[in-house]
Amino acid sequence: MLGRLSRLFASIDHRTLRELNRLEQYQKVLDLYERTQFTDSTERELSRRQYAHALTQKTAHDLVREPTTPGTTDEKPVEKQGESRPLFTENVGPELGTKKTPEWTQWQDRALMACSVAAFGVGILLAFRYNTNSNFLYDAKKHIVLAESSKVTFNDVKGVDECREEVSHIVDFLRSPDKFHKIGARLPKGVLLTGEPGTGKTLLARAIAGEAGVKFFFSSGSDFEEMFVGLGAKRVRELFAEAKKQAPAIIFIDELDALGTSRDSAAAYNRQSLNQLLVEMDGFQETDNVIVIAATNFPQMLDSALKRSGRFDKEIHIPLPSLPGRVDILKLYLSKVFYDESISPEALARLTPGMSGADLANLVNIAMLNAIKQGRSSCNSQDVDFAIDRVRMGVERKSLVMTIADKRATAIHETGHLLCGLLTDRKKRLRKVTILPRGATLGMTQFEDIQDRLNEFRIEVLADLDVALGGRVAEELFLGLDNVSAGCESDLQDATSSLYFLVRGGMFEEFTGIVNTQELGEKVGTTYRVKVDRAVKAILNDAYQRAKAKLTKHRDLLGKLSEELIERETLTLAQVSEFIRQYSAREGKSLEDFRGLE
């Protein structure tokens, strides 16, 4: 055997290593392979495979072999050859490439993963710390927007005279703070502007900055929301620090509800931003000369600690403009465009109840765009009328082709609304009735308030229900119950939902008693719910009977007027009044039942 091994050692190649592996001389294979320098690549690869096999078998034998316990035998423990070698060899075949065991490969992958994560984290921290690239994940100054000079003044704020006077003393304080500090007065730390969208909250804040001539920092509540915890609080600190450097200054935070939502319902990262805002506002000194003005449409969502005195000392509600306010707003926006004498700001203001300042600006712009589209250099009353229809009714559907049956059904439906409105004592008058499809409707009957409605009275609610059901009654009288259209469904849905709200509010106490359950929701009992359902059903049934009695009495006029509407497609109040007077004179009927005719 020894002679055969000697002959094998004389020429080392893969066959020699394979024979040693067959003889289970694994340690010899390992030693020979590590001492041999291979010149042929093919031979080197074949030898490497034998070396890997020997290493695997050697490792397996070492793991399953149990060591002999000293003292159990007279023989001295024999030191095994190669026992001092490590279990896994770090460098296997340096000239062939590294061959690792599965355990080693798994450990190496985990180490590489940990290093990659650590390197990525360090890169993010460095980007945040030094801001070397403003487009990489985070721009350190994007939440700080400084309006160098606000050109808006109080002359540009119309329709909210009382609110403008309320904040005028803030302008005086920012202009000459020493005058107030001498007598111990301090600047309010915060002013909260509330109101419906488009009423001019942001415009009023810019006017304050423009009048005072101070720096104006603009930010939005959503600018402080980030996926990284603590980043929102950091931005709050930076915003206030920058404002203090350039004091006197105004910080305006729009949509404050995105930042100041109650901490009971806010996420953890948002609570940190809110807590930082509370600290910054409460930490102001009297001589900081920095005031925070915030605007929100949902003041009920704000945290109670944010609204308390010492942070937002003033809460100013900006309402929708009244009739005089709308006149002033329209005069302001009309002064910036060309229009002829057919447009009267006073008349236009009466046609736009419930519109905000932003709505009126949009209305004037749509009228001017339509004038340009028609090839005119100035807008007139027709352009304004188009703009009102566009805002309230939607886009005119010129491509829609209505059949004669659809036109007749729509005309009868709208004429039913029209006559019920003229036969009912309401503080509204007709503007127009049309069967031209716009938006989601095939026709519309528009009534306008004679004056702004500050309260809603029961008699007016009942009159509105009669008008709402007038379209359904008219279709039943002329088309039959089986041919009632789906347009009646939307009228009934609107009337039912509004009536449920009023019944729960206690307006019809003969059904439910004097109790208001609008805010209780599911807390009310089943017995009360049944009473509400019965009340709504009874009130709607009474309104249906009143509308049916009125239209049945004037059935012939209803048919004639609907035919006139089919022919002209649109009728104004003047045209309707003239038609009814001519019909009454021709038929010898009285006009005493009609109200609101010109």
What does this protein structure show overall?
This protein has 4 domains: 1-65, no CATH class; 145-318, P-loop containing nucleotide triphosphate hydrolases (Rossmann fold, 3-Layer(aba) Sandwich), CATH 3.40.50; 325-393, Helicase, Ruva Protein, domain 3, CATH 1.10.8; 404-587, Methane Monooxygenase Hydroxylase, Chain G, domain 1 (Up-down Bundle), CATH 1.20.58.760. The protein contains 23 helices and 9 strands. It is of the alpha/beta class.
Task: Summarize it.
53% of the residues lie in helices and 8% in strands.
Tally of contiguous helical segments: 23
Dominant shape: elongated
Full CATH superfamily name of the largest domain: Peptidase M41
The proportion of residues forming helix, as a percent range, comes to: 40-55%
Give the termini distance in whole angstroms.
131 Å
Low-confidence stretches: 1-10, 68-99, 130-140
Strands of the widest sheet, in order across it, are 1-3-4-5-2-6
> CATH topology of the largest domain, what is it called?
Methane Monooxygenase Hydroxylase, Chain G, domain 1
Give the number of DSSP strands: 9
What is the domain tally?
Answer: 4
Specify the CATH class of the largest domain.
Mainly Alpha
Strand content: 5-15%
Structural class based on helices, strands and sheet pairing: alpha/beta
